[in-house]
Amino acid sequence: MVNEAEVRAFQNYLENYIDITFLVDFIYSTGILSAEDEITFIEELHEKGVKGIISFLSTDLEQVLPVCEEYGTYYVRGSGTISRL
């Protein structure tokens, strides 16, 4: 799990550099601690026409990624690595 300070620093970078540079909007979730919560959020974003997400969830990618693929949603890891899928 990513610590809150890291998430806050990343949020600051997104809002003060990426947002301004690329003219994108960010929608933040409440704390997501499970694949089920993340999938529910992805479904809500899909209904709003969101094209991609940045996630800090580090588990259960085998459940989450097929949902993103089905919706054509880009999935970016905010932190961490993936050893294999």
Summary of the model, kept short:
The chain has 85 residues and is mainly alpha-helical. The protein contains 3 helices and 2 strands.
Structure overview:
- The protein has 85 residues and is mainly alpha-helical.
- The chain has helices spanning 4-22, 35-47, 61-71, and strands spanning 52-55, 74-77.
- Strand 1 (52-55), helix 3 (61-71) and strand 2 (74-77) form a beta-alpha-beta unit.
- It is globular and about 30 Å long.
- It starts with a helix and ends in an 8-residue tail after the last strand.
Shape: globular
What's the total count of β strands?
2
The averaged pLDDT comes out at 86
> How much of the sequence is in beta strands?
5-15%
Q: What is the terminal separation in angstroms?
A: 19 Å
**Count of discrete alpha- or pi-helical segments spanning 4 or more residues:** 3
Low-confidence stretches: none
SS-based class? mainly alpha
| Rg value | 13 Å
- Largest sheet features: 2 strands, parallel
Largest sheet, order of strands side by side? 1-2
Task: Map the helices and strands.
Layout: H1 4-22, H2 35-47, E1 52-55, H3 61-71, E2 74-77
Parallel strand pairs: 1-2
Please tag this protein with its features.
85 residues, single chain, two-stranded parallel sheet, 2 strands
